[in-house]
Amino acid sequence: MSSLGGSVYGDSSMAARPRSSKKNPLPPNLYRNTRGYLWYRNPDTGKTYGLGYDERAAIDDARAANAELARKKSTLGLVARMSGDETISSWCDRYAELYAERSNSTKSKRSMGSILNRVRKAPFAKTAISNVTPKEINDWLKDLETEVSPTYAIDLRYRLTGFFNEAIAEGLLSAGANPVTSLRKQTATVLRDRLTLDSFLAIIAAAKESPKDVWAARAFMLALLSAQRRADVRSMRFSDVKGGFLFVDQQKSQHRTRLKIPTSIGLRAVGCTLEQVIRECRDSILSPWMVHHISHQGVSGPGAQVHLDTMSAAFSRFRDQAKVQPAPGRTAPSFHEIRSLAARLYSDEYGPEFAQALLGHKSAAMTALYRDSRGKEWTEIKIGSQ
Question: To which CATH superfamily is domain 197-371 assigned?
């Protein structure tokens, strides 16, 4: 097994497993690239190991590695059963049931299901939950940083904290024995560029040049002046406007945040009010939706509600047409960045507390994250009461 200590081989030519000859079929987890080079992939960690060109030696090594992995899993599972302890894998099943009982959101349940499926494939999945070490979890999360993304690993670490805290509550772990809490906290570098006012206005101008996509310009402006998320903008109906207010039941908060926004509010920076944009949305097309198609688009007819992906794609398309370029090392701003721009503009014109209330944030710290321009804008030093 000493020959399995090679480096990771990321050559795209190794992405698929070529067919081996019927005479010498390759054992599971052993692969050969187009040049005949053999390599082994650990199915638990995803790490790869170069084995050279000697097929017989590589097959022997792969079979030995597979046997060792199988032995470890069998031993871990047997030890857990003998001790009567819950394994990580079996706890995933119970935790999923507990989580489903407490969550009303289908999206949240689906997201947690995906997380738990990932945990079930972890190298320590068959280990008794009381025997999992911080190092095992840390090593796994480091692998996921490379395999998926640093942001995903950070989010998974956060989810695992609750996963093990629930095990403590169920008596499977001693108080204070959460193996995740001792891990060093990591932060992900934000790569998405902020959206500036000039860039936003250029995107609006580009959208207005396309008659069949005039709905997009309205959607972008509606998102800015209401400071709401994409899903909430898409769901806005004309019937949501009553007595000079736009009523918004924020979806992400699972309907715990309900806003009553005066339609008279506006931004001097764009010279427009929310009421004016809503009025523009009332065109000759009969539709209950503020954001609606004005012509046939695929299977969607005039007046049909615009899909979320269509809104995002339209923003990206008009952003590119407006030649909005991200800063070096960053990615171009997405539709969601309109909300951040709204937070900054409303904070400047109405104050941070107003912006916090409009965004529906429970804490000023969350609004501060949205107001951070990430170095894209100059800070004006105002004299006196200016």
Answer: Intergrase catalytic core (1.10.443.10)
Domain 88-169 class, CATH top level: mainly alpha
Q: One-letter amino acid identity for 256?
A: R
pLDDT, one tens digit per residue, over 65-84 is 888 877 766 555 554 444 44
Of the chain, the percentage scoring pLDDT greater than 70 comes to 82
Active site residues: 229, 252, 336, 339, 361, 370
> What's 331's DSSP letter?
B
In the block, which residue shows the tokens 């523009």? 280
Eight-state DSSP code of residue 190: P
pLDDT of residue 108: 82
Six-digit token string for 380: 């004006």
- Say how far apart CA 145 and CA 57 lie, in whole Å: 32
Q: Tell me the CA end-to-end span of the chain in Å, nearest whole number.
A: 73
User: Where along the chain do its domains lie?
Assistant: 2-81, 88-169, 197-371
Report the alpha-carbon angle 370-373-376, nearest 5.
Answer: 155
Domain 2-81 in CATH: superfamily?
Answer: Classic Zinc Finger (3.30.160.60)
Please give the single-letter amino acid code of residue 245: F
pLDDT tens readout for residues 20-68: 444 568 999 999 998 899 989 888 777 888 999 999 999 999 999 888 8
